[in-house]
Amino acid sequence: MIRLLDVADDGEMRSAFDLGVEVGSVDRPWFRPPAFGSWLIERRQPDQEERQELYGVFDGDRLTGTSLLWVPLTDNLDKVYADVTVHPQARRRGAGTALVGHLVDRVRQLRRREVWVESFVPPGDFASHPYSRFAHAHGFETGWVEAVRHLPLPMARTTLERLAGADAPSYEPDYEVRTFVGRVPDALLPGLAELMSLLAVDAPSGDFDFEAEDITPDRLRRAHAREEQQGRTRLSALAIHRRSGVVAAQSDLVLDDDLAGPVRQEGTFVHREHRGHRLGMATKVANLQLLQRARPGRPYVVTMNAEDNQHMVDINVALGFEVVERLVEWVRRV
């Protein structure tokens, strides 16, 4: 049986969360889940611009798998994004097939044309992995592949200073790099929102088209407020064009309140009209310097980049990031 789970029911949400923790712990040796309370806030306070639907498949009274759908409401209205999870002991017994069938039916009901699902696999030949075989058997094709990299902390201060100094002549005096702990000042939010809305368009995405996302200052404020409720801290580095005041580049790091947990690189993006000044490296280095100054003691930073995004790959390699796994973006056309 598959049914919509009640996000207001603490017991059902706990079961769904625990299932996800078990799956992640089996498949990924460095997996570290968020706190249950933080995860619950994401389920109960989704973006207004995106509806969430969480379904569970049951064997009797036991939850054996889930599918979580993100349904865009203001952009990319031909798409649904989803996460499908099946307990290891329930695999090869039809639970995954049932969830995918239900997912595709739901996408049809919503009159969407594409459904996107991702899976983490070990580095190397992902085509032979069970997740890949399952995806192909159920009509999915590879959208693109991202390399997941870890950067051990702390970085040598002299290395960061060297990289910062080497890049400064490329962007000074035309740009100023500013860093922030917590919320970005309101005066910069319109420019930041405009920049971030272009990420889905400009980021490498294989042969698939994405619209600019509906990112607004108010949406960013709500996201930052939600992060504060979750006990998360955002570190931001912005490159500001001195003459125009345009937010030309950004790089974000997000930390949970788990001091032993990793730091997540949420994104680094340079406006298409301001490339060629090494602003990607400049903002990443500035943010790493801020991290080690303001929030020291974390074990590593995790980042993900499309493997054909050579510019960002080169930056990560220069910083010392190492590949630990791959993220495969699967798409099924409905």
TrEMBL record:
**Per its UniProt record, what PROSITE patterns does this chain match?**
GNAT (PS51186)
| Keyword field | Transferase
Q: Which residues form the N-acetyltransferase domain?
A: 1-160
User: Would I find Ligase among this entry's keywords?
Assistant: no
Q: Which SUPFAM superfamilies match?
A: Acyl-CoA N-acyltransferases (Nat)
- Pfam families, per this entry? Acetyltransf_1 (PF00583)
One Gene Ontology MF term: acyltransferase activity, transferring groups other than amino-acyl groups
Give the protein name, as stated in the record: GNAT family N-acetyltransferase
Q: Which organism is it from?
A: Flexivirga aerilata
